[in-house]
């Protein structure tokens, strides 16, 4: 058995015909994989997508950029996650970061106990380093996930889509080489840092296209076609062990 972890918006979603081809393949071959969706969306929003599109039903959902893991379809939370290391206080961190005029807090409905989300156009590496330093000076250690040159998610240290996928794989008794992850933007980047087999779809943002590793396959095909192409790439090479 293997685990397939895929982002939704811009990865599996974005081309209905491609999604139809992926779903047709999964109907026949899905018994090889435990399917997991990893998204910045809330669980309820992901459920709505599953009901309103051709997305196959997963076994679990990694929601809110990795800060929550829920079983599907019931939505039961895995209580042992997230495993926060260090000090975390949403209000305190928000007060520190909103001093920067480059950050605009996103609406309340997208914020959670373990995720602060901002609109932040055109941040560079220096900006992110300064923000981390500012938080560190106040005793906070946090993950900063910047994607599409526009969205900044601030999460507890060590908590993101990648660590959530690693936790779930361990819970299911799977080794890293038995896991295939697929994505298109910066908030998917941590999934490619855990020794999994990676698939970068052809329409991916530059932060993923820059990845260079024997464990990462760059598909020339886009959206769900790229996901399917990547899965077949790894299966052909038998680098995902049963």
Account of the 3D structure:
- By secondary structure, this protein is an alpha/beta fold.
- It folds into two domains: 2-81 and 159-237, HAD superfamily/HAD-like (Rossmann fold); 90-156, Alpha-Beta Complex (Hypothetical Protein Ta0175, Chain: A, domain 2).
- It has helices at 16-29, 43-52, 90-97, 125-137, 161-171, 206-209, 223-237, and strands at residues 2-6, 33-38, 60-63, 68-71, 104-105, 116-119, 142-147, 151-156, 179-183, 197-200, 216-218.
- The strands form two sheets. The protein has a seven-stranded mixed sheet with strand order 4-3-2-1-9-10-11, sandwiched between helices. Strands 5-6-8-7 form a four-stranded antiparallel sheet, covered by helices on one side.
- Strand 10 (197-200), helix 6 and strand 11 (216-218) form a beta-alpha-beta unit.
Mind sketching the topology for me?
Layout: E1 2-6, H1 16-29, E2 33-38, H2 43-52, E3 60-63, E4 68-71, H3 90-97, E5 104-105, E6 116-119, H4 125-137, E7 142-147, E8 151-156, H5 161-171, E9 179-183, E10 197-200, H6 206-209, E11 216-218, H7 223-237
Parallel strand pairs: 1-2, 1-9, 2-3, 9-10, 10-11
Antiparallel strand pairs: 3-4, 5-6, 6-8, 7-8
Helix pairs in contact: 1-7
């Amino acid at each position: 058995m293997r685990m397939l972890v895929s982002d939704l918006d811009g990865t599996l979603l974005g081309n209905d015909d491609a999604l139809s081809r992926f779903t047709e393949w999964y109907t026949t071959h899905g018994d090889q994989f435990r399917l997991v969706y990893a998204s910045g969306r809330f669980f309820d929003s992901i459920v709505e997508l599953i009901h309103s599109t051709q997305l196959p039903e997963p076994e679990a959902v990694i929601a809110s950029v990795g800060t929550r893991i829920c079983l599907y379809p019931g939505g039961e939370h895995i209580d042992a996650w997230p495993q926060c290391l260090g000090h975390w206080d949403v209000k305190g961190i928000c007060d520190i970061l909103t001093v920067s005029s480059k950050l605009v807090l996103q609406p309340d409905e997208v914020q959670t106990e373990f995720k602060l989300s901002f609109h932040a156009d055109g941040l560079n590496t220096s900006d992110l380093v300064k923000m981390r330093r500012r938080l560190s000076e106040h005793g906070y250690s946090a993950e900063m996930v910047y994607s599409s040159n526009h969205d900044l998610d601030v999460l507890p240290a060590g908590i993101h889509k990648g660590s959530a996928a690693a936790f779930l794989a361990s819970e299911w008794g799977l080794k890293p080489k038995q896991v295939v992850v697929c994505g298109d933007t910066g908030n998917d980047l941590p999934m490619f840092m855990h020794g999994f087999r990676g698939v970068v779809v052809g329409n991916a943002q530059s932060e993923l296209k820059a990845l260079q590793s024997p464990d990462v396959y760059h598909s020339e095909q886009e959206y769900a076609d790229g996901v399917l192409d990547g899965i077949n790439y790894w299966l052909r090479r038998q680098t995902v062990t049963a």
